[in-house]
Automatic annotation (TrEMBL):
Upper classification of the organism: Eukaryota, Viridiplantae, Streptophyta, Embryophyta, Tracheophyta
Entry keywords, A to Z: Repeat
Entry annotated with the keyword Translocase: no
Pfam family, one: PPR
Source organism superkingdom: Eukaryota
NCBIfam families assigned to the protein according to its UniProt record, in alphabetical order: PPR
GO biological process, one term: RNA modification
Entries under InterPro entries matching the protein: DYW_dom, PPR_At4g14850-like_plant, PPR_rpt, TPR-like_helical_dom_sf
Protein name as annotated: DYW domain-containing protein
Ranges for domain DYW: 500-592
GO molecular function: RNA binding; zinc ion binding
PPR repeats mapped onto the chain: 88-122, 189-223, 251-285, 352-382, 383-417, 453-487
Length: 592
């Protein structure tokens, strides 16, 4: 048949009914111009009237268009399939794929059964579609059945099928079978290696991921990006950086992964250095990397750099993103520019709970607790972060009665507190010497199976010590890593004395003997947390500590010496500043 110039065919949707016949060229023109659910049935009707619907290829093209058109329901496509006299494998695959993509994987599996009932044999494209449907349903058993069918029809070694099998088993949590498929496949391509690597990355299995990565015949950007993400999650920052530095080609995902790696591990200066290098190289900036960079600026409290990033966001046209708007509010409030934060909040087209919580946190940080309470009370809906931020705010600013009152309200609202809430409440009990309420909170922690980690545990120890219950404090301490922490505390104390350290008891307000004051300092929450960090982390990873109150002068002096004696970076964020201890020096220059 002579080919036609489609641009010169005088066909419009309004003239369909006057067409004496229809062919493939005209069909393509009509489908190209079809934009609504009213127009498509006219094309379908003309094909039926002319008998052209009995042409398998033409009918498949019509079905393909109907299954992809967003304005057509898949019910229509199913009816169309059943009208085709002899639907081929391509037609069945098209409809199964459409159901899987549109979130109806059960229909994809049902259509497969109907296809087998029509005596059609699936091809190597059918099995991957069904395996993807099984993945969406997290149907490991269904996936195994499809796997058996693939082997039965001779597609078990097809690399396209193998890759989808690896993905299906890993999504369903069956890494053992995913590895078996990979190991026994006679043919592997780059997608195969990326798929099994992605499975181990998703599972957080560093050893097996490294094994696969080292064995890859040819590393690619996707694999290298995956390893940076995994190393970042597992706090192996130096390994992530080695991968980053060794890459021949970097894309925006690479840069974002490296920045996120630093940001997740509290290495905020390094995150910013990578970001500015990324910007100098002209790499396209997206909202994901901007959120990480703004978080780094907020943690460091560097408003100037944050404003520079804000300018880049505006120039890139990204300022409409809600998550970026929230990150900017958090930045300005963290840097105590609450006016700028409020201006952003008021000008936002959409605000969510994160926006409200950021404003509450900002006012708390600026010491404007009553303003924070106004935002808290005005929230359309509060979550646990809202309650925790407000309760911690009262506790941080010595409004301990209000802390306990708001916690009682939270209980009446049946909101389950988190660790931050409980730390704030226990701190208030300690400052008010409200031993009975503190005991009640401790009992609540036990009853509701909260994990008494280093932060919660050290706060409980502080509370009992400040209330004069030394024995109970020691009991709580024993519930933590007693032997290891005690040994580390002794080692810390030994090295402190070698460096000429003298305990500073001036901040110990409780009326006890000097020797008991020194014992109290020995188990201050900061020292317990540092001991825990020395036990549970390895260089060059910094020790990171969050504190609800201002660090005392004794712990500040001790942290400086420990950073030098143990050759470790120590990062302590108290209610006022971010303290970076390294080689015996603090970033605050001893002014806080």
């Amino acid at each position: 048949m002579k080919s036609l110039n489609l641009s010169r065919i005088p066909v419009s949707l309004s003239s369909i009914s006057r067409l004496p016949t229809i062919n493939l060229s005209i069909l393509e023109t009509l489908l190209h111009g079809c934009k609504s659910s009213k127009e498509f049935p006219q094309i379908h009707a003309q094909m039926t009237t002319s008998g052209f619907v009995n042409d398998t290829f033409a009918a498949s093209r019509l079905l393909s268009y109907s299954s992809e058109a967003p304005f057509l329901d898949l019910d229509y496509s199913r009816r169309l399939l059943f009208q085709i006299q002899h639907p081929n494998c391509f037609s069945w695959n098209t409809l199964m794929r459409a159901h899987s993509r549109r979130g109806s994987p059960h229909w994809a599996l049902l259509l497969y059964r109907l296809m087998l009932g029509s005596d059609l044999v699936p091809d190597n494209h059918t099995c991957p579609i069904l395996l993807q449907a099984s993945s969406l349903r997290l149907g490991g058993l269904e996936g195994k059945q499809v796997h058996a069918q693939a082997c039965k029809f001779g597609f078990g070694s097809d690399v396209y099928v193998v890759n989808t099998l690896v993905n299906m088993y890993s999504v369903c949590g069956d890494l053992e079978d995913a590895r078996k498929v990979f190991d026994f496949s006679p043919v592997l391509d780059s997608v195969s290696w990326n798929s099994i690597l992605a499975a181990y990355v998703q599972a957080g299995d560093v050893e097996l991921a490294v094994e696969i990565f080292d064995r890859m015949p040819e590393r690619n950007t996707i694999a290298e990006n995956s390893m940076i993400v995994l190393f970042g999650r597992c706090k192996r920052v130096s390994d992530a950086r080695k991968v980053f530095d060794g890459m021949g080609v970097r894309d925006v995902v690479t840069w974002t992964a490296m920045i996120s790696c630093y940001e997740q591990n509290w290495m905020f200066k390094e995150a910013l250095e990578v970001f500015f290098e990324m910007n100098r190289e002209g790499v396209w900036l997206d909202e994901i990397v901007m959120v990480s960079v703004l978080a780094a600026c907020a943690h460091l409290g560097i408003l100037k750099e944050g404003e520079l990033v804000h300018g880049l966001i505006i120039r890139a046209g990204l300022d409409a993103y809600v998550n970026l708007h929230n990150a900017l509010i958090h930045l300005y409030s963290s840097c105590e520019d609450i006016i700028a934060a409020r201006r952003l909040f008021d000008s936002a087209g959409i605000v969510d709970q994160i926006s409200w919580n950021s404003m509450i946190s900002g006012y708390v940080k600026c010491g404007l607790v009553e303003e924070a309470r106004k935002y808290f009370d005005a929230m359309p809906q509060k979550d646990v972060v809202s309650w925790s931020t407000m309760i911690s705010g009262y506790s941080q600013h010595d409004q301990f009665s209000e802390t306990l009152e708001l916690f009682n309200e939270m209980q009446m609202e049946s909101i389950r507190p988190d660790e931050t809430t409980l730390v704030g409440v226990i701190t208030a009990c300690a400052r008010l010497s409200a031993l009975e309420q503190g005991k009640w909170v401790h009992a609540y922690v036990r009853k509701n199976n909260f994990n008494i980690n280093i932060f919660l545990g050290t706060t409980l120890v502080d509370m009992y010590m400040k209330c004069g219950c030394v024995e109970t404090a020691l009991t709580v301490f024993d519930e933590m890593q007693e032997r290891e922490i005690n040994k580390m505390l002794d080692e810390m104390n030994r090295r402190l004395k070698m460096e000429g350290y003298e305990p500073d008891t001036s901040d110990v307000a409780f009326d006890i003997e000097e020797e008991e004051k020194e014992t109290s300092l020995y188990r201050h929450s900061e020292k317990l947390a540092i001991a825990f960090g020395l036990i549970n982390t390895s260089p060059p990873e910094p020790i990171r500590i969050m504190k609800n109150l201002r660090i005392c002068s004794d712990c500040h002096a001790a942290a400086k010496i420990i950073s030098r004696a143990f050759k470790r970076e120590i990062l302590i964020r108290d209610r006022r500043l971010f303290h970076h201890f390294e080689e015996g020096v603090c970033s605050c220059a001893d002014y806080w």
